[in-house]
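Everyone, describe these structure tokens:
***
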Amino acid sequence: MFWVRALRRTGYGELILKHLTLDKALVVECYRNGLSCAAIGRRFACSWISIYRLLVSEGVELRPAAPKKNLDTAALVKDYLNGSSTYTLARQHKCSYQTCRRHLIAAGVALRPRKGWPVKQQATTKGNSDAAA
């Protein structure tokens, strides 16, 4: 196992080697006892996606994702149209910016460009100058 020795020499392989030596049975047991992938990852000092992939490779039936946060979409839309930013709304409703943004898009609200971001110009087509005259 040349590559294992090479990883140890470089120092970068310690985390990779740790993932290879995880006690799979213990990880599965933790998951079946109700811990999330993120919590198990913190416990074993690795990422949640490593735990997720290990569980999938072991054939563990995964629980459904956490339920989506129920927000008052009408209040979100009203406040956004009155000038509140998505970040402000997220803080007020105790959710992430992305959750707030997703609810606004689902409600059909045209989002304003973020401060400092370039505004897309409307494309002009050639030949329309004759039609306008």
